[in-house]
Design brief:
There is one protein chain. By secondary structure, this protein is mainly β. The chain has two domains: 2-56; 64-261, Fumarylacetoacetase-like, C-terminal domain (Fumarylacetoacetate hydrolase, domain 2), CATH 3.90.850. The protein is 13% helix and 38% strand. It is built from six helices and 20 strands. It has helices spanning 35-40, 72-77, 131-134, 150-155, 160-164, 209-217, and strands at 3-8, 12-19, 22-26, 46-48, 54-56, 64-68, 87-91, 96-97, 103-105, 112-114, 116-122, 138-145, 148-149, 169-177, 187-192, 195-201, 227-229, 237-238, 244-249, 253-261. A seven-stranded mixed β-sheet has the order 7-6-17-11-12-14-8. Strands 4-3-2-1-5 form a five-stranded antiparallel β-sheet, with no helix packed on it. A hairpin with a 3-residue loop joins strand 19 (244-249) and strand 20. It is globular and about 50 Å long. The structure holds zinc ion (ZN). Zinc ion binds at residues 66, 115, 117, 146, 229, 231-232.
Length: 268
């Protein structure tokens, strides 16, 4: 089962479940709507798959929480120590784009990097959770790209600018429910123009996903629809206008975005 969010002519932005040749429209799925309940929907409104739809990022989070240095290999390649506690930061929801939408390369940076990351979408409000039960709050998984202006991240005291430009959070192409995907059994990869840049087993994270959620929810309440990016392995590197970046998590799907130069007076 794949959950998507589409922009449909006449209807606007809608969540939908992909069925063989149709999309079944559903109301906001996060919160009390479990994957089983979505699967059980029978008389749902459907549209043919050949309808001219645009794929949007498959969540509308109140916040995107990111985890830095959660793979030893990536901390080493940037000469950063492995932190004693998870290092967390936020990306603004305005950075979100779906698969096939362009990443806009800002004029303020001369070194923009891709970062392949497993993303999870929260299904239940989570506050002060323990690692034992935090995993139950995960609705599902998707692919994320924590696009980073590395020069600005290094120059500034905070990550806000270097990680926060519009389009710097590609997410998608769809969410697979948590009860159908076991991250520790899978790999994540990044390709730029078809050349492999990153590849790692998801079980090589330093801090496990339930431990991350326990840590984050001890700081800030996670709301249904919130997104957590779980950190990137080694192999991050520059992308340039004209490049095509793909983030693949096997068992989930592939998120692909082209890089374009950001225009100063964009209309959208
Ligand atoms: Zn990252």
């Amino acid at each position: 089962m794949e959950l998507v969010r589409l922009h449909i002519p006449e209807l606007g932005a809608r969540y939908a479940v992909r069925r063989e040749d149709r999309f079944g429209l559903v109301s906001s799925p996060f919160g009390e709507m479990t994957s089983r309940r979505i699967d059980a929907l029978k008389s749902v409104e459907t549209i043919p798959r050949d309808t001219d739809v645009e794929r949007l990022a498959p969540a509308t989070p109140s916040k995107i929480v990111c985890v830095g240095r959660n793979f030893r290999s990536h901390a080493d390649e940037l000469d950063n120590p492995v932190p004693d506690e998870p290092l967390i930061f936020l990306k603004p929801p305005s950075a979100l784009i779906g698969s096939d939408r362009p990443i806009a390369y800002p004029a303020a940076s001369e070194e923009v990097h891709h970062e392949a990351e497993l993303a999870l979408v929260i299904g239940e409000r989570l506050v002060d959770a323990s690692a034992d039960n935090a995993g139950d709050a995960i609705w599902g998984y998707t692919c994320g790209n924590d696009v980073t202006a590395r020069d600005l991240q290094t120059r500034d005291k905070t990550f806000t600018r270097g990680k926060g430009f519009d389009t710097f959070c590609p997410l998608g192409p769809h969410v697979v429910p948590a009860d159908t995907f076991e991250p520790a059994r899978h790999h994540i990869r990044a390709q730029v123009n078809g050349t492999r840049r990153q590849s790692a087993a998801l079980d090589s994270m330093l801090v496990s996903i339930p431990e991350l959620l326990a840590f984050i929810s001890g700081v800030m309440t996670l709301q249904p629809g919130d997104v957590v990016l779980t950190g990137t392995p080694d192999g991050v590197g520059p992308i340039e206008p004209g490049d095509r970046v793909s983030i693949e998590v096997d068992g989930v799907g592939t998120l692909t975005n082209e890089v374009v130069a950001r225009e100063s007076s964009r209309s959208s």
